[in-house]
From TrEMBL:
This is C-type cytochrome, methanol metabolism-related. It comes from Phyllobacterium sophorae. It holds the Pfam family Cytochrome_CBB3. The lineage of its organism: Bacteria, Pseudomonadati, Pseudomonadota, Alphaproteobacteria, Hyphomicrobiales. The keyword Magnesium does not apply. Residues 150-174 are annotated as: Disordered.
Length: 174
């Protein structure tokens, strides 16, 4: 599966580079939109980010991330990424997690052993419903983490850009 192998190689490399830097802290200023490529927004460092208009309309990718999160992630990580007894609050975790670390953990999974308790994040590198939408998940959770996106389903969203349709068809095999 070439997409999966490429994804794992890229995430491993990004995680290595990210781990060489200093402590990471995300906030509204760091998450600010610096570029827009066909409705996909990026911050000044080129990391995916969200755009929420004054009337509450979210970009397509944030909305898609909400949908994917509620399909595959909320069972463990709680509604709106608020956490549960099974898994941490991702709305908090993303405040100190780099994009590269996020990709690596989602693709490869993670095991934490502390205070006699074992927590396991399964690897989703083989799940197309997750890995085809990792940027979407990231921007949704980033919007929740820096406080710009309230809890619940976004009331309004931008239309799905043609680039998103093409990427989805390519990744999902459609």
């Amino acid at each position: 599966m070439p997409i999966r192998m490429t994804l794992l190689a890229v995430t491993a490399g990004l995680a290595l580079v990210a781990s060489l830097g200093s402590a990471y802290a995300d906030d509204k200023a760091a998450a600010a939109v610096a570029s827009d490529e066909n409705g996909k927004y990026a911050d000044k460092d080129g990391n995916p980010t969200f755009k929420i208009q004054e009337d509450g309309t979210v970009d397509w990718y944030t909305y898609s991330g909400f949908r994917r999160f509620n399909s595959d992630c909320f069972v463990c990580h709680g509604a709106d990424g608020a956490g549960s007894s099974f898994a941490p609050a991702l709305a908090n975790s993303l405040k100190t997690m780099t994009y590269a670390d996020f990709l690596s953990i989602v693709a490869e999974g993670r095991k934490n052993l502390s205070a006699g308790k074992e927590n396991v994040m399964p690897a989703f590198g083989n799940n197309k419903n997750v890995y085809c939408y990792m940027d979407d998940l990231y921007v949704y959770l980033r919007a929740r983490a820096v406080g710009d996106l309230p809890r619940g389903r976004p009331a309004k969203h931008e239309d799905k850009p043609p680039a998103a349709k093409e990427a989805e068809a390519s990744c999902m095999g459609g």
